[in-house]
Design goal:
By secondary structure, the protein is of the alpha/beta class. It is built from 19 helices and 16 strands. The protein is elongated, with a radius of gyration of 24 Å. The termini are far apart. Uridine-5'-diphosphate-xylopyranose binds next to helix 9. Its EC number is 1.1.1.22.
Length: about 450
């Protein structure tokens, strides 16, 4: 099939490449000529494992092209997929201006029947509104499709080529059938439904996953007080098929471009129809508070006096295998430390630059590697579970730190690794290890 994708962010770029990979002709469009230029030179504007290679092979095969010329791309395609950003407005609602603009430009470029598909996450009712907007700018026939996206950063290609399910929201059967054909090579689990339900499935899924994370984080906080181990609790819960083991990893809360935005947007969507989504409000509140789990531990260790200490921070991205720092817990944690007179030394394998562009370059010491960040620090906080941190030899680490204090915000290390190293080790929802001897420490 001939497909145009508007927007070369995570969703647009990865989807475009994957549609090409399964044999379609794909044109990716972005209004940023710099991005298109980069992509045409074989460079990839985002960090995503495997993406660069897949782009190269599909360009070589002549199935994938990049352009800033939206009109030409639309004219050459039967299916046009909108995958532009819907960033949150200050009130939590999704900003739909990019999507509206894309819809109008598509309408103006149309030279015949098209299937116009929305992959961007949009509030319920948006597809219907967009259809009206398109109709007001063209006489050509078209069908609207809602095609919500479920890919995760860091495993985006895997998620797109082998999805758990594909959701197709359609008004008419013919357009739905075409979209089913397009996705059949990817999965058997294709749910065809009405447009509003498809839009809702995306929000409900993300809200549910966010709920699982906040739930296990609260269980972790209780585990800390009663002396239980949340990793064992999660394991024990996860074997129950009705619960499932995924998204039960306790830590310092979820970040990223989706969960924070989509939970706020769903609260807002509910509010707009006079429904207060109390459960989801709590999920967001718990997540916000969980970031301070690390700070509370530092304050306990240093008797509330962080001013003048040097703290090393490992990990800045909201999760490993991405350079994305949007809503990363590291932003608020480091800001809090800096505001309280802490000298922060930090390192992340890939997210240093993106972090600096959001946080600024001032006030923090940026290090070349993990050990340099730890050198002479009074304590080390691990905020993102990058593989290279898990491989660190704790005996070596102990030698470079001024004090052997490790706060593991992602439960990367286990008791066997820590015992005998002399570390004062605090993790999330697990018994603390004090000077290598397992003993009860005061409740936090
Ligand atoms: C998420 C959804 O998984 C995906 O389906 C949707 O399309 C976009 O949002 P993503 O944000 O890329 O994907 O990352 P994900 O792997 O889901 O993790 C989100 C956040 O939750 C991360 O900050 C991660 O650290 C945190 N998390 C995840 C936990 O704290 N515990 C867990 O058990 C799982």
């Amino acid at each position: 099939m001939n497909i145009t994708i508007i927007g070369t962010g995570y969703v647009g770029l990865v989807s475009g490449v994957c549609y090409a990979e399964i044999g379609n002709d794909v044109i990716c469009v972005d209004k940023d000529p710099y991005k298109i230029d980069m992509l045409n030179k074989g460079k990839v504007p985002i960090y995503e494992p495997g993406l660069k290679e897949l782009i190269a092979t599909n360009r070589l095969a002549g199935r994938l092209a990049f352009t800033s010329n939206l009109s030409n791309a639309v004219r050459h395609s039967d299916i046009v997929i909108i995958a532009v950003g819907t960033p949150p407005l200050p009130n939590g609602e999704a900003n739909l201006s990019y999507i509206d603009q894309a819809a109008i430009e598509i309408a103006k470029a149309m030279n015949g029947y098209k299937i116009i598909t929305v992959k961007s996450t949009v509030p319920v009712g948006t597809n219907e509104r967009l259809a009206k907007l398109i109709k007001s700018h063209t006489n050509m026939a078209f069908d609207s499709i809602s095609l919500p996206e479920f890919l995760r950063e860091g495993s985006a290609i895997q998620d797109t080529l082998y999805p758990d399910r594909v959701i197709i929201g359609a008004e008419y059967q013919n357009a739905a059938d075409t979209m089913v054909q397009l996705h059949k090579p990817l999965t058997q689990n294709i749910v065809v439904t009405d447009i509003r339900s498809a839009e809702m499935i995306k929000y409900a899924s993300n809200a549910f996953l966010a709920t699982k994370i906040s739930f296990i984080n609260e269980i972790a906080n209780i585990c800390e007080k009663v002396g239980a181990d949340v990793t064992k609790v999660a394991e024990g819960m996860g074997y129950d098929k009705r619960i499932g083991s995924s998204f039960l990893k306790a830590g310092i809360g979820y970040g990223g471009s989706c969960f924070p935005k989509d939970t706020s947007a769903l609260i807002q969507i509910a509010g707009n129809v006079d429904y207060e989504f109390k459960l989801l409000r709590s999920v967001v509140e718990v997540n916000q508070d969980q970031r301070f789990n690390v700070i509370r531990k530092l304050e306990t260790i240093f008797d509330g006096e962080l001013n003048g200490t040097t703290i090393a921070v490992w990990g800045l991205s909201f999760k490993p295998n991405t350079d994305d720092v949007r809503e990363s817990p590291a932003l608020e944690i480091i800001q809090h430390l800096v505001d309280n007179g802490v000298r922060v030394k930090t390192y992340d394998p890939v997210a240093m630059e993106s972090f600096q562009s959001l946080f600024g370059k001032e006030g923090v010491i940026w290090c070349e590697d993990a050990m340099e960040a730890a050198q002479d620090a009074d304590a080390l906080c691990l905020l993102t579970e990058w593989h290279e941190f898990a491989k660190v030899d704790l005996h070596e680490l102990q030698k470079v730190l001024k004090q052997p204090i490790l706060i593991d915000g992602r439960n990367v290390f286990n008791e066997e690794q820590v015992l005998g190293t002399g570390f004062i080790y605090y993790s999330v929802g697990r018994p603390n290890l004090n000077q290598g001897v397992k003993e009860k420490v005061p409740a936090l």
